[in-house]
Amino acid sequence: MHPFRNPQRSLSLFRFRTTPTFLVPSNHLSTDSTTYPTTSSTTKRTPVSVPIDAGSSNRKPVNLWPGMFHSPAIYALWEARSSIFENPLLSNGLSVSKTPSLSRTTIFYNFSSDHMLREQYRNPWNHIRMGKLVEDFDALAGTVAFKHCSNEDGTARPLLLVTASVDKMVLKKPIHIDGDLTITGVVTWVGRSSMEIQLELTQSAQGNPNISNSPALVANFTFVARDSTTGKAVAINQISPESEQERLLWEEAEERNKLRKKQKEQQKHGDNEDTTRLNVLLAEGRIFSDMPALANRDSILMENTCLQNAFICQPQQRNIHGRIFGGFLMRRAFELAFSTAYAFAGVAPHFLEVDHVDFFKPVDVGNFLRLKSCVLYTELDNIAEPLVNVEVVAHVTKPECRSSEVSNRFYFTFGVDHEAVKNGLRIRHVVPATEEEARKVLERMDADNLSLVK
How many C-alpha atoms does 65 have within 13 Å on its Cβ side? Predict the structure, then answer.
């Protein structure tokens, strides 16, 4: 079902009108004056951008967001945006065409020499803490989107830019905690009021033969623009690819956009075709309910894989619009999904993919948020390389109103240590017990299979 998944991939400054670069971070005693050449479509010269030092130990929050707590990378990104917010001007409502190079943004993580930064991104197994990178990815995508939608004079248009979805975040090879990282984001496709942003993470080899310079992690974010007053969709700046690579990225993004529409249509009209598949999925679940003593010992009901947590959304995690930062929600969902896969498999899993993320409703400061996770299904076609697919659903709960609404859905895929499987670890089949559960499984399987079709 997933022929492209394999063990190799399983272990896992900003100056406007130029290509911005963020240094995240250097040691606070460092006198690093590294500069990076950048290219602007509005001039023939090659300007040089000055890196932002985001790693100083005495770093203070940006004044525009007092009391907020985020990673050094997010601070650097928001500090770069702050100059735009100082003197905002209203737009005349006209959009322009901009090249991808005008929004391209890079963050640099100096893991090799900055111990303080490295510790913030280390997990208990001395690997990279993926939830933190996922959070930073969303922040970088937001900065790229904001840059693309800004006016030519560097002032902000009165737009509300929100993350609509994450179509894919694929780990292609291991990420080492002691090697410098670079994440680059760029707008690849623009519709009327939406845009797709591609982000790539690369790791510097620095003489290490085990590290190559090819992308280690690739993600595609979709952002939408809304009028900040009415909430209605607003036209945004179009995009004019210049290079052959930029045109290729545009074509790939256009294909993904068509794919999303096709998936929605199939979900609307697939009821009759799904009846047989639903019955097959539910057959074993009925045995668990009606004859549990005869149920397959290598299977487990989906409901028995569930975990959940709940928390009040605090003001320290709000974004520039006063709502809860999407990257924070992604990190919390990822960490719950990781725990769910861990409890299910019996060994620490390793991240493979963020399969998809949907942002249905905004989450506000003070909301009571409940995250519910379960193992949706497992893939055991290759017994030596089992895969665990986890769903996390976020509910905004309002006890005063006796209401609860789904704000987000997150889907993750994890792998299991190859040595553990060789030593006898067995991953069980996950069985849906209700029609609703079975439909969720079919939808994700179909979406995953369709995403492989080019």
Answer: 26
pLDDT band at residue 55 under the 50/70/90 scheme: very low
Spatial neighbors of 189 by CB under 8 A, at least 6 apart, are: 195, 196, 239, 249, 250, 253, 254, 256, 257
Contact 46, 130 (CB under 8 A): no
Q: What are phi and psi of 304, to 5 degrees?
A: -90, 5
Q: Would you tell me how many other CB atoms lie within 10 Å of the CB of residue 123?
A: 16
Compute and round to an integer the Cα radius of gyration of the chain: 23
Residue type present at position 65: W
Q: Are 427 and 388 in contact (CB under 8 A)?
A: yes
Residue with tokens 């029609």: 435
Q: Alpha-carbon distance 370 to 363, whole Å? A: 11
**pTM of the full predicted structure?**
0.79
Query: How many CB atoms are located within 10 Å of the residue 247 CB?
Result: 13
Which residue bears the tokens 């929004």?
Answer: 103
Give the model confidence (pLDDT) of 282-307 as tens digits. Answer: 888 889 888 888 888 899 999 999 99
**Token digits of residue 34:** 């590294």
CA angle 153, 326, 141 (to 5 degrees): 40
Return the bridge partners of 233, or none.
Answer: 226
Residue whose tokens read 């900065």: 143
CB 242 within 8 A of CB 99: yes
Are 25 and 34 within 8 A, CB to CB?
no
**Residue 86 to residue 126: CA distance in whole angstroms:** 41
Measured distance CA(172)–CA(203) in Å, rounded: 12
3-state DSSP assignment of residue 80: helix
Query: Is residue 197 within 8 Å of 172, Cβ to Cβ?
Result: no
Would you call 345 helix, strand, or coil by DSSP? helix
Q: What is the pLDDT of residue 80?
A: 63
Give the C-alpha distances (Å, rounded to integers) separating 168 from 72, 172, 194, 410. 25, 12, 17, 11
* Per-chain mean pLDDT for the chain: 79
Smallest Cα–Cα separation from 73: which of 394, 323, 331?
A: 331
Reduce the DSSP state of residue 276 to 3 states and report it.
Answer: helix
Residue with tokens 């028995």: 304
Give me 59's structure tokens: 């770093």
- To which residue do tokens 């990822």 refer? 334
**pLDDT tier, 38 (very low <50, low <70, confident <90, very high otherwise):** very low
pLDDT in tens, 331-366: 999 999 999 999 999 999 999 999 999 999 999 999
